[in-house]
Amino acid sequence: QVQLVESGGGLVQAGGSLRLSCAASGGTFSRIAMGWFRQAPAKERELVASISWSQPTSYAYYADSVKGRFTITRDNAKNTVFLQMNRLEPEDTAVYLCAATSLGLSSSYTPRNRREYDYWGQGTQVTVSS
Q1: Facing residues of 125 across strands?
Q2: To which H or E segment does residue 9 belong?
Q3: Model confidence at 1, in pLDDT bands (50, 70, 90)?
Q4: Helix (H) or strand (E) holding 110
């Protein structure tokens, strides 16, 4: 059983930056692929970025809408995954959720479908004002 707790959300002006953190416990974090999703009101939950568990180099995948602005990283020593968000836009406003998968995936695989994840955090609100 993996528990996930997000932090770092808040209110920021367009063009600003935020760094989200997701602390994991209860599993072997170094062998778990992780992802960040977001859900805006009346919209489907969508993948923002995911990261493989391979070491020493991990692989990342980004949605087109955030490519070049967001960066996902992980610190296995701290059991934490981060999402650095730069050049934020009002369209980025959403609840951001951290997710983990217990599937025995290849170490270099970056899961992209929400059905591949079975552990979820409660989410942290990100609001970008124009």
Answers
A1: 95
A2: none
A3: confident
A4: none
Q: Which two tokens stand for residue 16?
A: 């600003």
- Count of C-beta atoms within a 10 Å radius of residue 7: 14
Q: Which two tokens stand for residue 61?
A: 């995948």
What is the token pair recorded at 50?
């995911």
Q: How far apart are CA 66 and CA 118, in angstroms?
A: 24
Report which of 15, 32, 14 is spatially closest to residue 24, judged by C-alpha positions.
32
Residue 71, amino acid: T
Give the count of beta carbons closer than 10 Å to the beta carbon of residue 35.
27
**pLDDT over 80 (residue 104):** no
Tokens of 102: 């217990």
Rounded-to-integer distance, Cα 112 and Cα 60, Å: 10
Q: What is the pLDDT of residue 103?
A: 80
